Here is the input.
Amino acid sequence: DLSQTFGELQGTGGETHQVAEGETAVLTTQQGVPVADDQNSLKQGARGPTLLEDIHFREKIFHFDHERIPERVVHARGYGAHGFFELTESLSDVTRADIFQRVGERTPAFVRFSTVAGSKGSFDLARDVRGFAVKLYTQEGNWDLVGNNIPVFFIQDAIKFPDLVHAAKPEPDRAFPQAQTAHDNFWDFISLTPESMHMVMWIMSDRTIPRSYRTMEGFGVHTFRLVDGAGKSTFVKFHWKPKQGLQSVVWNEAVKINGADPDFHRRDLWDAINGGDFPEWELGVQLFDQAFADSFDFDVLDSTKIIPEEVLPVRRVGRLVLDRVVDNFFAETEQVAFCTQNVVPGIDFTNDPLLQGRNFSYLDTQLKRLGSPNFTHIPINAPKCPVAHFQQDGHMAMTNPRGRVNYEPNSWGATIGGPREDPVRGFSSVAEEADGAKLRIRPESFADHYSQARQFFVSQDPIEQKHIGDALVFELSKVERPDIRSRMVSHLRNIDEGLAATVADGLALPELPEPAQAAVPTRTDLAP
Ligand code: HEM
Here is the structure.
């Protein structure tokens, strides 16, 4: 009945009709057009078909249809918070990085903690590595320290990363197990990858079932460089030390918590920050030179190794405080893009082949995940210092160059000619000598896969060692193929005979396998 008024047609479903009045904002479309009715689509008659002409309905559904973006290919489940970094000890003797110059100065920070293997909707207390990614909005650009809560990694060369992640994620035919290391593919890959043994000791320890994000350490993992104004570089390993102490749950608790509250870690962080109990970490550095690096049998470019803190104590130079939750999870925590390639003048890379690969991977994946090369324009990713360049266009361009000039060199003069390079203040790479044949090779210095695994195991106290043994038995007991179980035990024999015997016993292996071949074939035979 066309004579029916809008008001008369309202409310027939019994809905509460809330209208803008007083200070309440008026609901609009994306175009800013005020909306009269958000409850009913436009129809031909009260019981007739919905009309294509309904601009509000079409826009609303169109936008909803496109709400999802791909989840991160790893570290999909995470939780972020804002805070600041405060320098407590100057590092101006070793780096020109602006963030390390003035004691007491604060730099805004955003941190995202994560699990690695599970999907975005998985549970918080999976036995897994935790990401500890920090974005520091320095006055000379964004520096991202994209670390983990474990100081070493599974593999030495980034070319193995897709295999590692495929093996760790749910198996492709059955699509399970979700967010667990307990399956054949994972242990098959691991047992065929002896370089992962040090990491395996850490992931089977209580480190991978932290009590809270607030009670985890963080590590930059790789050896990086600090660089002074004269271009002299000092090697550095970065550490985050929690003021809350290091705490884990035990496996039984983890299993129960996952069932009772899969959001345990995110709720804990949200509640702590909103309750004014701001979590805090100290930034520690291990600084060393080439001669010190050369004094080890292992290679400081090998991410499966640590530099023991007893040998080189960690110097505490600053503090990171998280004091503000996000306003919007998607805008901030989901859209934040950490890239290892984001370094600032005074910080540089080394030739660690894992780091070199990461420097490509993050930017590449984020283009797909966020959909535009302009993802640096999203507020959470935008630097908080002046930005001036001639990059332009692309999807969602927000900060195109103004005026006529979008190239350099140009002769338009200082006012309209735009920014110019600065050889003094600008980022420059350390002038490292590099020579040699082009080869696919793993150097001999990367070949010892067991010594540090053993050091880690023996450094644990008896109850922690028991937890490692229990975890190995539990995880490997889910592996169906006996040869994979046995192959794992053959590696454990190179780490600790007692541990190997315990695990073999727990798995009821018919016999103890021979120790794995300790000297891993490197492909030096291909060297000229
Ligand atoms: C994501 C750490 C190795 C590729 C992440 C995140 C962290 C992290 C913390 C989550 C970032 C966030 O919260 O948004 C590490 C560490 C590694 C390592 C510490 C080794 C030391 C690698 C390697 C590759 C890689 C070798 C590839 C060659 C990725 C990718 C993402 C990611 C593609 C998803 C990034 C995104 O979608 O934003 N990693 N990772 N990672 N990592 Fe790694």
